[in-house]
């Protein structure tokens, strides 16, 4: 199979006159659609993503927190995420209609009743509990359309090398965010890295994620999505974000 870069180049030649005036580079759209198509066709996957989240402290200035996430998914209704960061180690187990949370450091657990598929569950727990899953946007079927709706200009910056992997570099410019995405230049067109500049505040913040250890359609046993609560663990109530507090640590 020829590399994606070749047919992007040929496609760009055919529409050379219009491409220079367009706000959205058609080559970038092709790559993003290809990435979404590959991810959307998966029955299961696993990957690791290292993230950094930036906050502004009036006394300390810009402060970054770093996390490691190991993610396992099996469609349509199973997901397991292990998180490790400044707040310790936590895990999420989702299977069918229940998401269970466990904090290793405090030996506490809780659960949330959820919808019966991964995407709706991710939406639900974010809206109701302010809980975000790492790199979740890449798994939405309408990823490209959503990006184009919120960003006025999307450009293709060419090929770059990231840790020995050749990748397409795409930049989307919007009023509230600027987003950079690096997608592998190979058959699978998987995301390698993303960088988000949040422009919505007077102190622009950066959020970054670096992917590794992608496994496509692995055989994941059902048992790994079910959590066995330790006998010594104590149960906590996980309250929605409309409540006065939440027991979930920021990962």
Question: How much strand content do the residues show?
Answer: 35-45%
Number of structural domains: 1
Quantity of strands, as a count? 12
Architecture (CATH level 2) name: Clam
Number of helices: 5
The parts where pLDDT drops under 50 for at least 5 residues are 1-22
Determine the CATH topology.
outer membrane lipoprotein receptor (LolB), chain A
Q: Look at the structure and give the CATH class.
A: Mainly Beta
Largest sheet: 12 strands, mixed
Question: Order of helices and strands, N to C?
Answer: HHHEEEEEEHHEEEEEE
Spatial shape: globular
Kindly describe this structure.
This protein has about 250 residues and is an alpha+beta fold. Helix content is about 20%, strand content about 40%. It has a single domain, classed as Clam (outer membrane lipoprotein receptor (LolB), chain A), CATH 2.50.20.10. It has a twelve-stranded mixed sheet with strand order 7-8-9-10-11-1-2-3-4-5-6-12, covered by helices on one side. Strand 8 and strand 9 form a beta hairpin. It is globular. The relative contact order is 0.19. This is DUF2092 domain-containing protein.
Defining key terms:
single chain; 251 residues; outer membrane lipoprotein receptor (LolB), chain A; twelve-stranded mixed beta sheet; 12 strands; 20% helix; disordered N terminus; signal
Summarize the structure.
By secondary structure, the chain is an alpha+beta fold. The protein has helices spanning 4-14, 16-19, 26-40, 118-129, 143-150, and strands spanning 44-57, 61-74, 78-85, 88-95, 98-103, 108-113, 153-162, 165-173, 177-184, 191-198, 205-216, 234-235.
